[in-house]
């Protein structure tokens, strides 16, 4: 029993201290602060397992503790490390699939725009009155919707292609050779399940820019993206940057929640340069994290 408790505790402390696996998996165990915390938490866990706990603590809370402990255990199987040459194909795949996922939500975003609704409505009514048949307007609207989906796919594929050409086909030169840039992957059972890159921002050299964040769908909700975010923040701190900035889009709602959860603040919102993006209100968002050492 105590052995089981001990194991859960270890994982709980791991989470409490907020130290993620960073290539030096057991570093946290040697920290005196962690050892003190371990003793305090150990006592607390013994209480948790006691009759008193079962009688007085809400079962939902017990379930949430169990889930949390499980989640940390899953995370413990994931290692965050620097990119290696042999990761190349998997990195491209994780990034490409992650980006392609935004095609359906982007189509929904376009359909929610009053301009798009008005346009479809006008075409429908015009064809209905001129042809006096329901078939033609339905067919025309269906064709327009299909064409719209194709255009959104085209835009995303173009973006993915530009990312591959810009840096993902040259990770070594873009992120590993320059001193203040890096590329990290999350590895689970020998496979790449998450990616993130960082390099000095062109807009403000005091900031490191976080890019190419993506986690495989099968490994979401386990704290991998949070660990990748922390790795980038640690890297920025080590290299003396004031903070980290990044860009995301209005349809990447999971990413927005992630960054807000990690303490990033939205600093600006602007339209993507393409005409179609302006027409459809496809905005880009800039987030910034000021590192603790630089907050006053
Ligand atoms: C965004 C993304 C990287 C999150 O990866 P993840 O490993 O599942 O995220 P985590 O498990 O570390 O979750 C971190 C936090 O983000 C938020 N979050 C992530 N996914 C969420 C979701 N589906 N709903 C609500 N909140 C979510 C939560 O606050 C979560 O913390 P919590 O679980 O403690 O509440 C992942 O969904 C992804 O790869 N998406 C596609 C690619 C992409 O959009 N990349 C961003 C480019 S800017």
TrEMBL record:
Domain N-acetyltransferase: 143-290
One Pfam family linked to the record: Acetyltransf_1
Keyword Ribonucleoprotein belongs to the record: no
Presence of keyword Transferase: yes
InterPro entries: Acyl_CoA_acyltransferase, GNAT_dom, NAT_camello-type
Source taxon at top rank: Eukaryota
Keywords: Transferase
UniProt protein name: N-acetyltransferase domain-containing protein
